Amino acid sequence: MARILAVDDEPAILTLIRRALEKEGHRVTVCQNADEVKEEYLNQYDLIILDVMMPGTDGITFCRNIRSKVDCPILFLTARTDETSIMYGLGSGGDDYITKPFGIGELRARVQAHLRRENREKKHAVMIAGVRFDLAGKQAETDGMRIPLTKSEYEISEFLAVNHGHVFSKEQIFERVFGYDRESDVSAITEHVKNIRAKFSKAGIEPIETVWGIGYKWK
């Protein structure tokens, strides 16, 4: 059982989310406005679902405001599929997005995939190409400097690093990291890789190589 917060200005969407996830045994708290969320309770949630377009504080702004205070996966609900929206959402600290309209099966599968990632047991650290991966704490660092990766950015980095030298398509990365096969969402991988590269470049490292026409690999 997980504790989940869903924020959306459409009551019908919140009802759908609550019914679908409570049938899976989860406890679901819903709010119609991000400004109604009590930040002192944010740490009690195992996963947060945010609508992007809401009156008042929008989902992306809210995610950016709370990201330093919460460590759980954040999923966006969006009717907008243009790359700019995806870039801003993932760049603000979001882990994934679900495009409206969505089905109950897709919602449950996506939520479960992220919760499984949170519950995996990892008990050691590895050093790969100058980057130390703390597999328990899900953190990456180089020369003692922590790279501020989001959970999804870390998972992608770890997957590519552990399999360094091998080339993976965006579809393969999405399925292996997120545990959910959906071709239309692989654009999320492109944006995550951009963010990963930007963060590692500040430490003087360029770990991910693009293999044109195929995908990405860890150098």
From TrEMBL:
Modified residues (4-aspartylphosphate): D51
Statement: the UniProt record of this protein carries the keyword Lipid metabolism: no
Listed GO CC annotations: cytosol; protein-DNA complex
Entry keyword set: DNA-binding, Phosphoprotein, Transcription, Transcription regulation, Two-component regulatory system
Gene Ontology terms describing biological process: regulation of DNA-templated transcription
CDD domains: REC_OmpR, trans_reg_C
Biological role stated in the UniProt entry: May play the central regulatory role in sporulation. It may be an element of the effector pathway responsible for the activation of sporulation genes in response to nutritional stress. Spo0A may act in concert with spo0H (a sigma factor) to control the expression of some genes that are critical to the sporulation process.
Record protein name field: Stage 0 sporulation protein A homolog
Organism: Faecalicatena orotica
